[in-house]
Design goal:
By secondary structure, this protein is of the alpha+beta class. The chain has helices spanning 2-15, 39-50, 55-73, 98-114, 175-179, and strands at 19-25, 31-37, 121-131, 135-144, 156-160, 171-174. The chain has a four-stranded antiparallel sheet. A two-stranded antiparallel ribbon has the order 1-2. The longest helix is centred in the middle third of the chain and has 19 residues, at 55-73.
């Protein structure tokens, strides 16, 4: 019993402690900076995600949570200058291309997953789409967690923060639609 009590104490300290995440910027992860999320910020993310009663609602909450996390990261790093796409913020320190976004968003999703905040999804490795020979784009990827007795294949969804300005909710959409080239038009 004493061992169980020690385990629960250590687990609760880990779950509710500040969290440090490395954020990529300046295209291709040319620069990285450590961002510290406070216990208060992480509790807010927990509240955003906890309202979800199913996978669709959790995807909506994930979009908002990623926006908050990147916005807070922008207060500690130059990524506050990042704008959707690649051209509006060209040559500005803190700009983020799809490699920076997919890497950073995956790290943020993994942090949420490790903390037990995702109930209906699991985090996968970033995904790439290639249209024609030169249009390559990367995004973070999540997959629905299906109940043991559910049939069919779990849905996969991109979580793409590249489309939006820093601090705005990420675009979450079905992987198949994203692979077909769908997404907001950012002139890129």
């Amino acid at each position: 019993m004493r061992l169980l009590g020690c385990f629960l104490l250590l687990w609760s300290l880990t779950v509710w402690a500040d969290e440090q995440v490395s954020v990529c910027f300046n295209y291709g992860c040319a620069a990285q900076a450590e961002v510290v999320y406070s216990n208060r910020q992480l509790r807010k993310i927990g509240r955003v995600l906890r309202v979800a009663d199913d996978a669709a609602e959790e995807r909506d909450a994930i979009a908002v949570a990623i926006g908050h996390l990147l916005g807070w990261a922008g207060k500690q790093t130059p990524i506050s200058a990042d704008r959707g796409g690649n051209y509006v913020d060209d040559e500005v320190s803190g700009r983020m291309d799809c490699i920076d976004h997919s890497t950073t968003t995956t790290r943020l999703l993994q942090m949420m997953e490790t903390r037990g905040l995702l109930r209906f999804h699991r985090v996968l490795e970033p995904v790439m789409r290639q249209r024609y020979l030169v249009l390559i784009h990367y995004s973070a990827l999540i997959e629905e967690v299906l109940p043991a007795n559910a049939g069919g294949e779990p849905g996969r969804y991109v979580v793409d923060s590249w489309f939006v300005d820093n601090g705005q909710p990420a675009v979450v959409m079905p992987l198949a639609s994203w692979l077909a080239g769908e997404g907001p038009n950012v002139g890129d």
